[in-house]
Structure formats: C-alpha cells, structure tokens
Specification:
amino-acid biosynthesis; NagB/RpiA_transferase-like; 12 helices; 364 residues; 7-stranded mixed sheet; 2 domains; Four Helix Bundle (Hemerythrin (Met), subunit A); Methylthioribose-1-phosphate isomerase; Rossmann fold
C-alpha cells in the first residue's frame, strides 16, 4: 500500500544495518509517522507487547523476524527454543503469533546452528510474502460480496460498510484483511462509504482505520462504538466486515472487544456480518471459542486514560475516570459462529462452520 505516493509494507529488513527490521510505531499514528528500528529479540518482544506493532498477521511476521534476530546472537538449540518461547508469550490471543513461531522452529530445528541465521531470514521473508498474497486474495473474494450489493442497486448508489478495530494493511504485511475488499471496491469505482468504529479503549478504528482509509481516498465517517446498532436499525449499514485474531475450526471468531455486540445488532437487523482472515488465523485445535480461547487482559490504564493530540499539537494522555475507580480491560471477545454470515479466506468464502472451513482446507 502507499503513503503519500510511496509504497510500503508494514515490516521490512535493512540488510545494510545489521539486518535489523523496521516497522511503523502504531502507537504514534495517526498524528506522527514514526519508523522504529528493531535490532534484538527484546526490541521485537517489546514492540509486540506494547502494541507498537499489532494486528494478528503482522505480529506473526514480526515475531518470525524476531527469532532471526535472536539467532544472530546465539543460534544454539537451547537459545533458539528459549527465545521462541519468550516471543510466543508476548500476546496470548492472536494465533498467528504461535503459528509463525512454530513454523520457524519446524524449519530451523533440522539445520546446524551455522545455517540457521540465513535460513531464518529467508523463512520470515516467505511468511511475509505469503501473507501479502493471501490478503490480496481475500480482497478479491470479498470484493465480489460488495459487487453483489451494487448489482442490485441503481448505478452509483452509496454502499455503506461498517468495520470494527483495524484490519487494514497496517495490521498485516500488506493489503489487510477486512479492508482489502474495501480498497479494491473503491479502486474499481464503486461508491463505498465506511462507518469506522472508534474501537475503545485504544481507538484503533478512529486512529488507524480512519488514517488508512483517508490515505487511500476512501470516504469514511468515524462513529462511537455504540452507534452501529442505531445505524443498522435505520438501514444505513449494508454489510459489516471485520478481521479476527483467531478463528476456531467450528467458525467462532475472536476479535477486538465489541465485535460480539456488532454481530448481535447485525443479526437483529438482518445485516450480513462477514469476517475476513488468512488461513494462518484458523486454530484447528479449538472447537469452542468462548470456553477455550484465552482472552488477553490489558492494563487498566487503557480504560482510565485516553491518548490524543492537544490543541498545541503535542501528543498527550489524560485521565477520564475518578481517582480510585477500578477498571477491567478484556482486549477481545468471541463472536459465536451462529452470528457470522460467513468467512472470507484466501481460498474463497465459506459458512462459519467446521464443514465450511474443511471444504476450503481439506488438508486439515
């Protein structure tokens, strides 16, 4: 994707500077476009834990490079296993993180220590290339859903889409999941408009999704998280499309907190609710998402304080709750498969069921 006409991916390697990797500091967007250089596995773990880098597919890709950085320090069996465990523990909900680390280890374990560094960078690069290709395919399959809506409307009629959190290119290596079909619809000349949930408490929608859509020229409107149901009641949402951090083999979907409520509102108002994901986000070992998917509990300060830009242009954080009030901050919720219209993957669309997923991925 592009920023001010320049093409970027969300992670890239600097071969001239100790084979370090670079990412955008997502905690500074949309007010400041800062590029971070990560040179150690500790840098990578910190970036993932503090959400300087976020989005399930991108977390996996960056963690893969984190293991490559670790092997530059020590490529022994024990050091590799230890660093892999530390990276895998940084965030518990997104399955792509564990998937990427396990893929790296499967590729590296048979190799001798002196072969591992070069092989690790190559494998991490393949993970990135595959993610970008998968997301582009998701965009094409999701585009057909939007085109189907347009086909049944008078030419030029506005199509209103609603999304939650950020599932764009900044959350993946490139293209994004939920936003990829929207970008392609816009580029194809369809009159799409996006309702962007602010996505409290970290405001990934208001900060990141709105920034992405604006940079690409896609018409959009930021709304409070609780406004989506109202818009659906009044016929102002044609389709809901979200990303996900983990999907069970039975089609349950773990995504940013508040997704479940959007799915309930969509079902009550007969609005299609679609989830876009690469196959790396499917956890074939889990059948009941509500009972089995671990939900990350983040710091209470994300609830009690809000970050933003002051009138003088400085970035600041202010307290919004009374002193002494406690706060709970579950970062994700699980939307049961019965509320999901269907899943959009790189291999096509399917019902949110075990048979639907296995139909697309019979090798599983």
């Amino acid at each position: 994707m592009k920023i001010a006409g320049t093409s970027y991916r969300s992670v890239w390697v600097d071969e001239k500077d100790s084979w370090s990797i670079h990412i955008f500091d997502q905690t500074r967007l949309p007010f400041s476009l800062d590029i971070l250089q990560l040179t150690t596995p500790e840098d990578v773990a910190h970036a993932i834990r503090t959400m300087q880098v976020r989005g399930a597919p991108l977390i996996g890709a960056v963690a893969a490079y984190g293991l490559a950085l670790a092997l530059r320090q020590n490529s022994s069996d024990s050091a590799m296993e230890e660093q892999a465990s530390l990276l895998a523990a940084t965030r518990p909900t997104a399955i792509n993180l564990r998937w990427a680390i396990e893929r790296m280890l499967s590729h590296l374990r048979p190799l001798s220590p002196d072969q591992r560094v070069q092989a690790a960078y190559a494998e991490a690069g393949r993970i990135c290339d595959e993610d970008a290709a998968q997301n582009e395919a998701i965009g094409r399959h999701g585009l057909s859903l939007i085109q189907e809506i347009a086909k049944n409307r008078p030419p030029g009629t506005r199509i209103n889409l609603l999304t939650h959190c950020n599932a764009g290119w900044i959350a993946t290596v490139d293209w994004g999941t939920a936003l990829a079909p929207i970008y392609m619809a816009h580029d194809a000349g369809l009159n799409v408009h996006v309702w962007v949930d602010e996505t409290r408490p970290r405001n990934q929608g208001a900060a990141l999704t709105a920034w992405e859509l604006g940079s690409h020229g896609v018409p959009h409107t930021v709304i409070a998280d609780n406004a989506g149901g109202h818009l659906m009641q009044h016929g102002q949402v044609d389709l809901v499309i979200v990303g996900t951090d983990r999907v069970t083999r039975t089609g349950d979907v773990a995504n940013k907190i508040g997704t479940y409520l959007k799915a309930l509102a969509a079902q009550d108002n007969s609005v299609p609710f679609w989830v876009a994901l690469p196959s790396t986000t499917i956890d074939w070992t889990v059948g009941d998402g509500v009972r089995e998917i671990p939900i990350e509990e983040r710091a209470a300060s994300e609830i009690t304080h809000v970050a933003g830009r002051a009138d003088d242009g400085s970035l600041t954080k202010v307290q919004i709750t009374p002193d002494g009030s406690s706060a709970a901050n579950p970062a994700f919720d699980v939307t049961p498969a019965r509320l999901v219209t269907g899943l959009i993957t790189e291999r096509g669309v399917c019902p949110a069921t075990e048979s639907g997923l296995r139909g697309l991925f019979p090798e599983q």
